[in-house]
Amino acid sequence: MAVTLREQINGKEIKISDPVFDEIHRLQAENDERLVDLNTKFHSKQETNQILSAIIGENIDNTVNVMLPFHTDFGKHITLGKHVFINRNAMFVDLGGITLDDYVLIGPRVNLITVNHLIEPSNRRGLSTKPIHIKKNAWIGAAATVLPGVTIGENSIIAAGSIVTKDVPDNVIVVGAPAKITKKIH
């Protein structure tokens, strides 16, 4: 079995001089063509899911509903469960991998960011990646941002506008920047 790009780079620092950047740029260009098609024409739900299936490289269940426009830089590192709803203008920076389990709700203008730049100024154009996992029945509110390496627990809610920098346990509501637990869900 071939090693995927995500497996090659996750958790590692990638300097701009690394040859893997050629593959990253190739995948971005390939994805950009499909995104232009997806976001600039009217499509039926079935057509939308067919194009999204091509973008992510696996069939999307017919229970998935994605409102357009939808944005992603690679696409091939996204996994969607069943009954997932993604609202308009969501941005998935998915090089590190994004997994949405069944019944996840993504609000409008949500940012899921799996990539960070390196801290040292001389290497700042380099990257590091960590996956995001949003577990079953979680809800990410409008304009919230989830940063690299975060797992959102089952049934948890991320309030609108929150910035999530750390893992969120099951059955809680988090609010703020950075997001903090404000309530347990029973």
Automatic annotation (TrEMBL):
Record has Repeat as a keyword: yes
PROSITE patterns tied to this protein: HEXAPEP_TRANSFERASES
InterPro entries: Hexapep, Hexapep_transf_CS, Hexapeptide_acetyltransf, Trimer_LpxA-like_sf
UniProt keyword list: Repeat, Transferase
Pfam families: Hexapep
PANTHER family, A to Z: ACETYLTRANSFERASE C18B11.09C-RELATED, SIALIC ACID SYNTHASE-RELATED
Family statement drawn from the similarity comment of this UniProt entry: Belongs to the transferase hexapeptide repeat family.
Name listed for the protein in its UniProt record: Acetyltransferase
Native source organism of the sequence: Listeria newyorkensis
